[in-house]
Every structure is written in C-alpha cells, then in structure tokens.
Amino acid sequence: MKVSAIIPAYNEEKTVGNVLKVLTRSDLVNEIVVVSDGSEDDTVKSAQNYKEVLTIDLLHNRGKGGAVIAGLKRSSGEVILILDADLIGLTANHIQQLLKPVLENETIMAIGVFEKGRVATDIAQKVAPFLSGQRAMKRELLENISDLDLSRFGIEVALHQYVDEHNMETVEVQLADLSHVMKEEKLGLLKGIWARAVMYFEIFKYVLRIDSSSKSNKG
Question: Low-confidence residues of the chain, pLDDT below 50?
C-alpha cells in the first residue's frame, strides 16, 4: 500500500526540517506533503529545501483539521501518516512502528504515544492519548468524517469519536525517546499558556458541536 505523510505546520521553520530529514529517508513513505497553515515565518522555505516534498502554503490559518484536509486532497496514498512538525527525536523506527499495524491490516488507525521522551509531554499523552498528533490510518477513515476541515484543533477528537461510534479497533504504539516542542517553549510562558488555552477551547467547542449533532440525529 502507498503511504502518504502529511505534516501540518504553523510557524515551524526551526523544526520541520528535522522531521522531513527522517521522512525522506524512510523506505516506507512514498509521498510527503507539508501544509504550512498560514505560517508567518520561513516554514515554507524550510520545507522547500527538500525537493521531494510537496509544500502547500495556505494563506490563512485553517487549524490542524483544515491543514490535514488540504494535504489529503493533494495526496494519493491508501495509508496516511500524520506527524507534528515540531517533533524532537524522530527516527525511522518510530515511523515503522506507527505504520506497521496499519500496513499489515491489523487496525484502521495506530496512535503514537510518547514514552521516555520528556516528563511533561509523556504525562500529557498518558493522560489523554486520544489527543496525540502522531497517527497512521487508512485513508478511508479521514474521507468518511464529514466537516473534518472545520475541526481545527479538534481533529484528533473527531477521529476518536468516529472510530468509537463505529466500533473500530485502534492500537496505541509506544514511541520511545520521542517528544515535541511545547507551546510555552516556542512562544514564551504567557503566550504559550494562552495558545494552549485557545487550543483546548477549540477542542471543547468541537466536542460540543459533535455532541449536539449526534443528539439531533437521534432525535
């Protein structure tokens, strides 16, 4: 099966290259799409240093859901690998671990959970693994969820909700020594806390929207 990697990125000029360096060397990944989600820095230039990577430059920020859908429309793989653009310590083994259960038809989606990376990110993912941004899945899963482009930061919640409602089996994959740059590190303490609060608000808002829609359909 063909594998397409989609990397949504917002102001990740310093880190996206480290992710692409590993992806471009992977024999399992056939296609790589970076979606700069209205970035105001040199994220696009950093991605374009890798000639084999397709870079999409969205003029306006659409949130992670919108960025992923934009990448999906420009990709053709039966299996989609989604990775954050700010990962620290990504290796070819991590990619293989995430893709293996999906490529071998053991599951429709594999969710990567940080382990032994950094205490703060490890704890966050152990508390809420369904919010992890590192995933491999069958393309059909993304295509079957309506309005995914409107989910913004709620894309992981939308995926979790869909597989739960349809009784689909997923697997969690422990990704040792992997972490990511936290918002507080990127933006400073106060701006980082604010950005995190906005992210959680958008997730909460999307959860309420899903719940309301579900009740309407039952009614």
Answer: 119-122, 127
The number of C-alpha atoms within 13 Å of 218 and in the hemisphere containing its C-beta is 6
Only one residue has tokens 């959860």, namely 207
What is the C-alpha separation between 12 and 39, in angstroms, rounded?
A: 8
Class at the top of the CATH hierarchy for domain 3-180: alpha beta
- For 77-109, the pLDDT digits (tens) are 999 999 999 999 999 999 999 999 999 999 999
Q: What is the rounded CA–CA span in Å between residue 74 and residue 111?
A: 23
Give CA torsion, residues 72, 55, 155, 23, to 10 deg: 90
Residue 53 near residue 22 (C-beta atoms within 8 A) = no
Inter-CA distances, 104 with 33, 68, 79, 99, 214, Å: 23, 24, 11, 8, 33
Residue 132: phi, psi to the nearest 5?
-60, 140
Closest CA to 95 of 194, 139, 180, 29: 29
How far apart CA 9 and CA 179 sit, in angstroms, is 16
| Interatomic CA distance for residues 106 and 33, integer angstroms | 25
In angstroms, rounded to a whole number, what is the distance separating the alpha carbons of residues 152 and 26?
Answer: 29
